[in-house]
Amino acid sequence: MSTEFWIQMIVYAVSLGSFGGVVLTRLTYLEKKMDKHNCLVERMVTVEQSTKSAHHRIDELREEK
Q: Strand, helix or coil at 63?
């Protein structure tokens, strides 16, 4: 096998490795964004439940008047 063949194989391997690194980096970034989004959704559910509870208490106070 010629030297040119091995040089091409090394270039392909380096290119594939760098592409894989970019893909993994992007996936890590997207996972972090998804975690932030999920935390926001969990907090909003808590806020909605708290708001619903507050509205029920306000309605009860109005009925007592």
A: helix
